[in-house]
Amino acid sequence: MRVDVVSIFPDYLAPLDLSLIGKAREDGLLDVRVHDLRDFTHDRHRTVDDTPYGGGAGMVMKPQPWAEALDHVLALDNPSGAKPHLVVPGPGGQPFSQALARRLALEPWLAFACGRYEGIDERVYEHARDDLGLEVSVVSLGDYVLNGGEVAVLAMVEAIGRLVPGVIGNAESLVEESHEDGLLEYPIYTKPSSWNGRDVPAVLLSGNHGAIAAWRHEQRLARTAARRPDLLHASHATGPDGVPVDITAATRGDVPELAVLLRACAAEEAVATGSLDVPALHEGLDEVSSALETSQTWLARSAGRLVGAVRTRRSPDAGDRWEISRLCVTPDLDGSGLDRQLLDHAEDTAPDGIRTLTLEVGAHRTDALKAYRKAGYRPADTPASRPGTVVLAKRRR
Ligand code: 6GU
Predict the structure, then answer these.
(1) pTM as predicted
(2) Does domain 2-173 have CATH number 3.40.1280.10?
């Protein structure tokens, strides 16, 4: 992976030479290049900032040095043939997460633009998107304010870099870690078994691997409940076949994976009905992406893998009706209860004022019809949108 960082404090990024990331650079797995923004100024004072139009506190980074710096980065030799994904760290961005790190780790080339002061002139973002054709993401480490993006870049490059194949020798150590599956890590111990009057939990010395795994899972749940209750969805306690499932809102980066999942479910339905008149079958990347604007899509992930999805929206015809659609689960989790979890989630996220929940389902899908009946759905008098399907409805408590 190629990484370019532009900053007015290039020395700040010196730690990228150390430890695992430094080793990955030596091994040729990461090609990290740091650039000084001031090299792209032309005045004696190497000025990169100026006062804000409209007034207000602080200074704003000028567009011209940034445009030249980006041109310079784009003109550098570039074996992948791709354009960089431009990441701008800032407290006003989307939250950085393990999921985002995983997506960014798939990019052949990342460029980081470290802002200072109050930030960068907005036209730099527009120029990068519209004129240079770059994907631009503003990304925040969390809800607090740093003086500049450099520390954030150190954190992000470390989190992303370690996911690049080969950077971490033991790929297994990447799996059972805090945040990979939405639970915090269990407590760990090493020798001696008794230290300062404190003993290692006996189960860990028992040699009973089943008991150890069960204890560790309990510890993960307890710890997550105590420290990060926001991460705990009901589904963790009741996950299908003991697989913890995390349900989160889909974002644009999820679209390619989501489109594949929806196609798979649609194909199954097409085969079952012998008809290609299944709307989801004809949804490509663009349709799945634009549906994110007009509806909510929820994704179920288990250990990072996309295993299910459901779409919800307020009915455009009747404002008190909540439409649930595209409920889809991977074949290996069929019958695991995940579909019911997704349905519950779709219902739980309906806003106040919703009186009726509706679903449209193929009339031949007897198993699904039975499951929806069990969940409280009954045939509705609303007309179906296509032949061979029925609309089911449920009154909201
Ligand atoms: Cl990425 N940048 C700055 N300047 N402040 C932050 C941040 C980033 N994330 C949280 N606070």
Answers:
(1) 0.62
(2) yes
